[in-house]
Design goal:
Layout lengths: L4 E8 L4 E5 L2 E4 L8 E5 L9 E10 L6 E9 L4 E5 L10 H10 L4 E5 L12 H4 L4 E5 L10 H12 L3 E5 L3 H5 L3 H6 L2 E5 L6 E4 L12 E2 L10 E4 L3 E7 L4 E7 L4 E5 L11 H12 L6 E4 L3 E2 L4 E9 L6 E8 L4 E3 L10 E2 L4 E8 L4 E10 L8 E10 L4 E11 L8 E5 L2 E2 L4 E9 L6 E9 L5 E2 L5 E2 L3 E5 L2 E8 L4 E9 L7 E11 L5 E10 L14
Parallel strand pairs: 7-8, 7-9, 9-10, 10-17, 19-27, 29-38
Antiparallel strand pairs: 1-3, 1-5, 2-4, 5-6, 11-14, 12-13, 12-15, 15-16, 16-17, 18-20, 20-25, 21-24, 21-26, 22-25, 23-24, 26-27, 28-30, 30-36, 31-35, 31-37, 32-36, 33-36, 34-35, 37-38
Helix pairs in contact: 1-6
Amino acid sequence: RGVTDTFTLSAEGYAWDVQMEPASLTLTPCAAASLVVSVTIPLASGWNVSDTITLTARSSISPSVAQTAVLTTKTPAPVLLVDDGDRWPHYDQQGVYRAAMAEAGLAYDLWNTESEGQLGGSPTLAALSPYPIVVWWTGYDWYQPVTAAERDVLDLYLQQGGRLLLSSQDLLDFHFDSPFVSDRLGVLTCTQSITLTQVRGVPGDPISQDLGPYVLAYPFPNWSDELQPSPGTAVVLRDQERRAVALSRRGGGPAAVFLSFPFEALPAADRPAVMQQAVGWLSWLGDSTWVADRNAAAPGDVLTFTLGVRNDGPDEVSASISNTLPSELTLIDGSVAGPAGVFSASHVLAWSGALQPGALVTISYRAAVSPEVGLGSAITNPIRLRLEDQSIEFGRSAVVRVGGADLSPSTYRLEPDLVHPVGLLTGTLALVNSGIGDASAVSSTIRLPTMATLVPGSVHADAGTVTVTNGAIHWRTALGAGQGVSLSYAMHAPAAFPSVTAYSVAVVRDLVSGDGVERPAWLRVTPRRVWLPVVAKQP
């Protein structure tokens, strides 16, 4: 037995407006009661800021008896990590993602689908919506990596302009035929459970240009998938056999990066760089561009570099850039054009400012290539972009080969690109070297559309040697400066019903410099329609 006591409640140590209801609690022995603490977050508060409240309950019978609790209120971080791979705790990968985020300097909040309470279970659309970017992984959960309800929530999140990085080697086992996979992630088709041992970036890709190769080490069985991108979707990473294993898709607000292998299989030392580049591309500055006016130059040539800083997010942002001019380049005096581009004595171009939604700031300058640069050398001109409000920073590079070849004008096309099932069409890869140096060894691999049939004896190349394997054409040739050569072939389209889109790609590499280009092509196969008259007879 005991006596009824009244506890006075007080709060201290806070900066934001706090209201408590009630101001005191009267409790009988062994009883409990609830109180509501309401915190008003100032409208001007930024991302990932917090306020702490120390709440004290003091006995009126024995004022020396008091109990305190510390409550923390915060605004959302720019990134929400969603751990959807804890079905079997032995394979928990949460620490991998948290470490990668921390080393990349990225602020985040955490949600665990296997936990209980307000930050557990499947996140709702209301839970995801405050976050500009969601990083979601499924780890070794092959039983139910993403539920149908979770898939639909992610679909809605992207439809309203969200940005998603999804790592899952088992997602396509359950949701391959869903609009979420095809329309949001950009997966046209896939080959499941391939042997994936290594990944590397794609030349010219804004996320992965400077990444890899990375040897993968799986913390659980390897059930990764090969991907084929839909039109408007880019390949981010390819494996040791040049199969696509990561895609990116952007447009109209939403953006997504999909890895069909576990991010946690990447080497620990390289995960932060991959995470930083992927999150940077997903950010509201991710559609920014940084290019040189050409990819090959001679010693003494003058190059033009152009930066386009674009905000494709829904709110005004504060952005900044930093470009340290490499020693191989000398700025041309008076050539900097743009609203606030200034070179300092240390050869650093710096700019910062506010960007309204949809705004674009363009900065350019001209720089001369040092006469001392050796032929064949690559000049890498790096730039760092930073979304100040969200503390998201990432890099881009413009690479120019001195005295080298430039294969960027090369093209690959399918004609016609709209055919009936088993219809005949022609594929043409035209290699063009617009550089000032010869490409003594160019390797090209054309991956044919799935289920298409190559016409025997139809492959013709102007020069070099050609090898045909199952589903691919391999061509090796030399290409002098200013020259062009082509390879053509005939094939029958897949016997598809109903209508399908088929994917083909030419992967071109300069085997001496390591530079290269990729040229995708898509084919639409539509069944033939025949309209027949209908004759009806009255009974």
